């Protein structure tokens, strides 16, 4: 997303909160925009060189398009009161189109990516947030079977611990993206899901603020993800992913749990491959899955050359960046993180952040100043794969 989820960063990285992609379970992820790898080049039509008018959509036609959305909302049973409140300030948003068309097109290496998203200050802040919020985190962990450090890691990447959630009117952003036409069905579905959130009393129209692609709150859930995974963490009968960290933690844990999280496992570890390792064995397909003992027999070791300590019965070898040669042994939970965001770089950053929160030594960059926007996954194409 979380579609899960999405917003804007530096030219090298764009935060969570863009247009969600489909999870392997068929659900919509909470997040927004990043490639299956932080390297994919956007199609030529999305590079920003083609105007809306050239694509057959004139912004002057937006008001008429809004009327069509109203009719569709009424047909789906949305109340007139909700339509009046949500459509009152609906407007075309040029910057949403620009953000959607100008996502990263050049490959960055895994090390470059991790340098940006895992500076030492951020890991230390994660450790502090873990300790400060441990009671609420533990409640979510006990309820859904997800270790607290992974909840904090996703919270950190998606909204910089809730600090930066996006200020765009979700309805205007989604309507604009639907109107653009490239992914009209997807964004129309998310627009209707956003209406259902208000219509069911979960939020007011004024609360529906988020990223340029409609990802909302501290977990950067797309509207459909809010409906599918949002959870009441403190028993007050509400699901507030904007201000209530109990609900943020519960919703994040609920997402991972429903997507297949295994409470007795971690995410994986970096490994060293033997000379002459058959590259066709690497990957995340089911036919590339073997017990950790199999990989040890193949000569895979810990980075320091020691024997693998893992006893996982399902493990995969991935080599996400061929130019640098780093390799990782990953487990089912890694694949579950990729339901949230189909970027191996992102999933690795979440696993390493979680390890760092628990005190593990991981490659970090010291001395970086805290950024003005949260560091999150390199831009991904939410519609690929």
From TrEMBL:
UniProt protein name: Lytic murein transglycosylase
One of the GO BP terms on file: peptidoglycan catabolic process
Species of provenance: Rahnella sikkimica
Region (Disordered): 29-56
Low complexity bias (residue ranges): 29-48
Keywords: Signal
Record-annotated Transglycosylase SLT domain positions: 62-355
GO terms of molecular function: peptidoglycan lytic transglycosylase activity
Classification of source organism: Bacteria, Pseudomonadati, Pseudomonadota, Gammaproteobacteria, Enterobacterales
Superkingdom per UniProt: Bacteria
Family annotation (PROSITE patterns): PROKAR_LIPOPROTEIN
One Pfam family cited in the UniProt record for this chain: SLT_2
Annotated signal sequence range: 1-19
InterPro entries found in the cross-reference section: Lysozyme-like_dom_sf, MltB-like, MltB_2, SLT_2
Family annotation (SUPFAM superfamilies): Lysozyme-like
Keyword Signal: yes
């Amino acid at each position: 997303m979380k579609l899960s989820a999405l917003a804007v960063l530096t030219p090298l990285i764009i935060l969570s909160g863009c247009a969600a992609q489909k999870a392997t379970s068929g659900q919509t992820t909470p997040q927004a925009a990043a490639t299956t790898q932080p390297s994919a080049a956007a199609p030529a039509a999305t590079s920003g060189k083609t105007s809306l008018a050239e694509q057959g959509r004139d912004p002057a036609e937006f008001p008429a398009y809004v009327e069509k959305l109203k009719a569709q909302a009424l047909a789906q049973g949305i109340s007139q009161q909700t339509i009046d409140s949500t459509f009152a300030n609906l407007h075309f948003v040029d910057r949403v189109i620009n953000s959607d068309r100008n996502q990263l097109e050049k490959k960055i290496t895994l090390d470059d990516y991790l340098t940006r998203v895992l500076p030492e200050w951020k890991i230390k802040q994660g450790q502090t947030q873990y300790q400060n919020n441990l009671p609420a985190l533990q409640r979510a962990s006990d309820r859904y079977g997800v270790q607290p450090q992974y909840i904090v890691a996703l919270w950190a990447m998606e909204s910089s611990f809730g600090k930066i959630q996006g200020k765009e009117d979700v309805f205007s952003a989604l309507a604009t993206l639907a109107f653009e036409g490239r992914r009209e069905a997807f964004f129309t579905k998310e627009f209707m899901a956003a209406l259902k959130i208000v219509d069911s009393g979960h939020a007011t129209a004024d609360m529906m603020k988020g990223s340029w692609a409609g990802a909302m709150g501290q977990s950067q859930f797309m509207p459909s993800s809010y409906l599918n995974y949002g959870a009441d963490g403190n028993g007050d009968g509400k699901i507030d992913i904007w201000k209530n960290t109990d609900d943020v933690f519960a919703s994040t844990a609920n997402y991972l749990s429903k997507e297949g999280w295994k409470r007795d496992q971690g995410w994986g570890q970096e490994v060293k491959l033997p000379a002459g390792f058959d590259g066709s064995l690497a990957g995340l397909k089911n036919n590339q899955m073997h017990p950790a003992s199999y990989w040890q027999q193949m000569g895979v070791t810990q980075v320091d050359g020691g024997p693998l300590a893992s006893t996982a019965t399902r493990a995969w070898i991935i080599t996400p960046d061929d130019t640098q040669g780093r390799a990782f042994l990953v487990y089912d939970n890694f694949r579950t993180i990729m339901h949230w965001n189909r970027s191996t770089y992102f999933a690795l950053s979440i696993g390493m952040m979680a390890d760092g929160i628990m005190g593990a030594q991981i490659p970090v960059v010291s001395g970086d100043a805290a950024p003005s926007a949260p560091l999150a996954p390199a831009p991904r194409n939410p519609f690929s794969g």
